């Protein structure tokens, strides 16, 4: 209950207002109630805490997708998160251009269908690289199209599939997903995968390819996250209370033992003139700088590790390990 002012307190307050000691405008601003606009047609299903964790997962998704596409097209591709919005499926459809490419995915055991929308400019640039074209910006070549051929869609299918595989890898710490691509579409108006008012999370990525920038959209329905909301909690993500399991070290050691490593032995080096190199013929003998009585250096993953002695074992060449040098050439 508010305190009732006495007449003396009222008089002092009025005198303070008249003398300017109290700014009435500041009092009015303090009493003004701040109203936040809320659209009930677009309810925010995921709280700020969940969105923070989801942002981290989508940034990881961008890194994984960048690596997969870079490896496939053999050209540097970079993705980064531009924005994450909670909108309706109808709004997503209206944001998609007429000429585009979309991959539709199912991620068991989660509900709903995920959609990756790739800008046509990116698709045409990827086609140019995958078909052995020059590493030049598409805008510099003057090519323009308004539809994809069946062959082009078949070539791009593996690229689109990598975006689905990246989703599976990005969420592996939250839930084990089995992501499968169900279809590819080029017309957003033909999509009938969910209700127009269905809430979705639309993530826009900026993709950089050959010094050109454009956008890729990832649309995930809210039902996809319903069964994993507890795992998206910021508190559970960083404070799960899980203690270190002694078997983790043994499992890690066991897994590392099966990792293949490259081993090579350098017999020696020499320097020849260009004239001598051009006159090399079958049967010529080249003298190396390594004396026959000195041990050779065996490198593991390009790191000098052991001194070894060459020999023969059965019908194959072999080396005998003499001394561990631990990366020290001396």
Automatic annotation (TrEMBL):
InterPro entries: CheC-like_sf, Flag_FliM, FliN-like_C, SpoA-like_sf. Residues 255-324 form the Flagellar motor switch protein FliN-like C-terminal domain. It is found in: Bacterial flagellum basal body; Cell membrane. One of its GO terms (biological process) is bacterial-type flagellum-dependent swarming motility. GO terms for cellular component: bacterial-type flagellum basal body; plasma membrane. It holds the Pfam family FliM. It comes from the Bacteria. The keyword Cell membrane applies. Keywords: Bacterial flagellum, Cell membrane, Cell projection, Chemotaxis, Cilium, Flagellar rotation, Flagellum, Membrane. PANTHER family: FLAGELLAR MOTOR SWITCH PROTEIN FLIM, YOP PROTEINS TRANSLOCATION PROTEIN Q. NCBIfam families: fliM_switch. Belongs to the FliM family. This is Flagellar motor switch protein FliM. It comes from Trichococcus shcherbakoviae subsp. psychrophilus.
